[in-house]
Design a protein that fits this description.
The chain is α/β, with parallel strands linked by helices. The protein contains 4 helices and 5 strands. Helix 3 links the parallel strand 3 and strand 4. 21% of the residues are buried. The mean pLDDT is 96.
C-alpha cells in the first residue's frame, strides 16, 4: 500500500507485539484517561501519536505532545464546535462519525 495502516490500541501489550512484529508500521496509543506515565509509555512503545478521547485534549497535552514529537489525535468528535476547538488547538487528527 502507498500508505501503511496506522495501528492503534488501548492495550500496550498489543502495541508492543505490533512493534516487535512490524516495527515500521506506525502506532498510536489510545487513551480514555491520562494515567500516570502516559507519555513515557507512548515513547517506549515507539508510538508516533497519542489518540485520546476529545475531552482530554487541551493546550497543555497538545504542547507536551508537540515537544515530544508525537501527533495529537482525538476521538470521537461529532460536534462542529468541538471540531473548531480541536483545530484551534492544532490537533493533528480527528476521528468522527459525522462525516457530513
Amino acid at each position: 500500500a502507498e500508505r501503511p495502516p496506522f495501528l492503534t490500541s488501548f492495550r500496550p501489550d498489543a502495541l508492543a507485539a505490533a512493534r516487535d512484529a512490524e516495527p515500521d508500521l506506525p502506532r498510536g496509543l489510545l487513551l480514555d484517561s491520562l494515567r500516570d506515565g502516559w507519555l513515557e509509555e507512548a515513547r517506549a512503545l515507539g508510538c508516533r501519536a497519542l489518540v485520546t478521547h476529545f475531552a482530554l485534549m487541551d493546550r497543555a497535552v497538545r504542547e507536551c505532545l508537540r515537544e515530544a514529537g508525537l501527533a495529537a489525535v482525538v476521538y470521537t468528535v461529532n460536534d462542529p464546535a468541538e471540531v473548531r476547538r480541536q483545530l484551534a488547538l492544532g490537533t493533528d487528527g480527528i476521528v468522527t462519525d459525522a462525516v457530513d
